[in-house]
Amino acid sequence: MEKSHDLPQVLLLKPPLDMELFGQDRFSSDKFRFLKAWESPLPLDQFLQAHAQSVQAILVSGGIPVTAETIRLLPALKMLMTTGAGLNHIDMAECRRRGIAVANAGSVPSEDVADLAVGLLIDVLRKVTASDRYVRRGLWITNGDFTLGSKVGGKRVGIVGLGNIGSLVAKRLEAFGCCISYNSRKQKPSVSYPFYSNVRELAANSDVLIICCGLTDQTHHMINKEVLSALGKEGVIVNIGRGAIIDEQELVRCLVHGEIKGAGLDVFEKEPDVPKELFKLDNVVLSPHCANLTGETFNDRQKYVVANLEAFFSNKPLLSTVVDD
Amino acid sequence: MEKSHDLPQVLLLKPPLDMELFGQDRFSSDKFRFLKAWESPLPLDQFLQAHAQSVQAILVSGGIPVTAETIRLLPALKMLMTTGAGLNHIDMAECRRRGIAVANAGSVPSEDVADLAVGLLIDVLRKVTASDRYVRRGLWITNGDFTLGSKVGGKRVGIVGLGNIGSLVAKRLEAFGCCISYNSRKQKPSVSYPFYSNVRELAANSDVLIICCGLTDQTHHMINKEVLSALGKEGVIVNIGRGAIIDEQELVRCLVHGEIKGAGLDVFEKEPDVPKELFKLDNVVLSPHCANLTGETFNDRQKYVVANLEAFFSNKPLLSTVVDD
């Protein structure tokens, strides 16, 4: 075994969420060691310049931006690993230009994310969170039965982005008797669900929209006033993608004025800031971006991250890289 | 068409929940009319004696008891219709002795009940209601990420009572990658899930118990200290059956002391009274007995109730009667 200081270094700009929660030991390896930018007294740019020739790999998590400026300060960088699914914190154009391999947690957290999407949908339709508040406030005794919910089965569910996560959401909701259709960049030849090339048309033909796509320049504010209006007064929206895929200000307006029926939101435009107007509403469920936060998936993900970095330093193929088409 | 006062009468002891919510018109028929005990100034026993020879059918909903005393005052009674699924408010022994046909809403509300069971399970495992409270209290900003949830997939789910509802719960949870086994009065030859004749053994081999059976003398407090202890510290319980199937005092003690991990409860022993100790807990979801309360199912149920009563008065076979074995 090489001595620890001979090992190649994986740059950490800030502590990734997984390490903050579980400590660094679970990420240790005899193939690499971590270089922690935040432990240095140097300003970040000087720190990066000092290690410019040695840093071949970076590890980050969702909230940690990797800008073009950072990448330009690291001429030896060849691999960027992010522990989440989203890529919107990474300057993908610069990575492509430089030929840097970008890897995310792949499909490891997809089941968890799909589970929460279904949980949020059942919750909004069947008013689980709202009725729990009702019971805890003692209102069941004083005010009698809670208001009726809406049935899950038979709902026309439009899935926006039928990748890993979207497909798992569809599989689950089929078991509830929902009717699935979808929108995505291209029609999927292997899928029999009806395809809508236009998200407004999907919304017009759906009782529920579930946002499962990534955030890109193309999907930013894709769910706008027009789409929400097509979804309509009886429509429900669930977002487990990224907050900025929806025009949040418009969504809040629609929810407050009853122009759509309800929403289950795990993501927001300015996390951890959540629009205060939503706090008073019974027809929304607010989840603090935790669609992939289960103990089981953290375990799997930690193993996957280490295995991917070890593959990189052993010149083996990565377990997965991001296809950014 | 016969004149209204010539029509046979359906006795209502109290307004059934469905009528309270939607009015009586939706239950009207040209085959029968309603006889409303609560509108008479007479005490109930005298009122029943006055109509003893004419009442052939009664319509009730879940919270309205039909005792042996009531049944004995109605010698002409031949049919009893209840709008819910449960039968614990009806003296079934007396009905059997007298050969009175008992009909419930059959499988009409089963999907709704199964949907809520799954919703409560996802909620407890993924902490949906607890994290919604966290966001609404502004704690995401001040305290950072919420605690990790537990993955739905891979959980060993023990279903107690594999009838209509239990089977629909199993079908849904298979789509999430759960491993199903069950306990019921008898093993079902058509079912391939592992069967446990003993509910304590089922609990010992499960991460989750979902109570889907009816309340009878045999199932009263069936989920006792021994069963909860077999389920264990990491175990979760969901109850969409009836409150008294679980020894509620023991359940509360286990939840307060962390002897089981969490619970999703739609039913309680003394509804609408919910043990106050539960109000402070983040590991429980409290639902005000609304597993079958959706607008869609109320519609279907109302049609089903009217059709069943019309079948009775037309001497046609009932759409369903309760098999009480």
Describe what you observe in this structure.
- The structure is a homodimer of 325-residue chains.
- Chain A has 2 domains: 4-108 and 295-313, 3-Layer(aba) Sandwich (Rossmann fold); 110-286, 3-Layer(aba) Sandwich (Rossmann fold).
- Chain A has a 6-stranded parallel beta sheet with strand order 7-6-8-9-10-11. In chain A, strands 2-1-3-4-5 form a 5-stranded parallel beta sheet, with helices on both faces.
- Chain A has helices at 17-22, 44-50, 68-72, 92-98, 110-126, 128-136, 139-143, 164-174, 199-204, 225-231, 248-256, 295-313, and strands at 9-12, 33-36, 57-60, 79-82, 101-103, 156-160, 179-183, 208-211, 236-239, 262-265, 284-286.
- Chain A has 325 residues and is α/β, with parallel strands linked by helices.
- In chain A, helix 11 links the parallel strand 9 (236-239) and strand 10.
- Chain A is elongated, with a radius of gyration of 22 Å.
- The first copy, chain A, has 12 helices and 11 strands.
- At the A-B interface, helix 5, helix 6, helix 8 and helix 12 of A face helix 5, helix 6, helix 8 and helix 12 of B.
| Fold-level CATH name of the largest domain in chain A | Rossmann fold
Radius of gyration of chain A: 22 Å
Q: Which pair of protein chains has the largest interface, and what are the residue counts?
A: A-B, 56 and 56 residues
Distance N to C terminus of chain A = 40 Å
> Helix-strand pattern of chain A, N to C?
EHEHEHEHEHHHEHEHEHEHEEH
Domain module count of chain A? 2
Helical fraction of chain A equals 25-40%
Q: Which homologous superfamily in CATH is the superfamily of the largest domain in chain A?
A: NAD(P)-binding Rossmann-like Domain
Oligomer: homodimer
Q: Helix segment count of chain A?
A: 12
CATH architecture of the largest domain in chain A: 3-Layer(aba) Sandwich
Low-confidence stretches of chain A are none
Strand content of chain A: 5-15%
| Overall mean pLDDT of chain A | 94
Quick one: how many beta strands of chain A?
A: 11
Shape by Cα distribution of chain A: elongated
Family (chains A, B): Belongs to the D-isomer specific 2-hydroxyacid dehydrogenase family. GyaR subfamily.
Domain D-isomer specific 2-hydroxyacid dehydrogenase NAD-binding (chains A, B): 118-291
GO molecular function (chains A, B): glyoxylate reductase (NADPH) activity; hydroxypyruvate reductase [NAD(P)H] activity; NAD binding
Keywords (chains A, B): Glycolate pathway, NAD, NADP, Oxidoreductase, Photorespiration
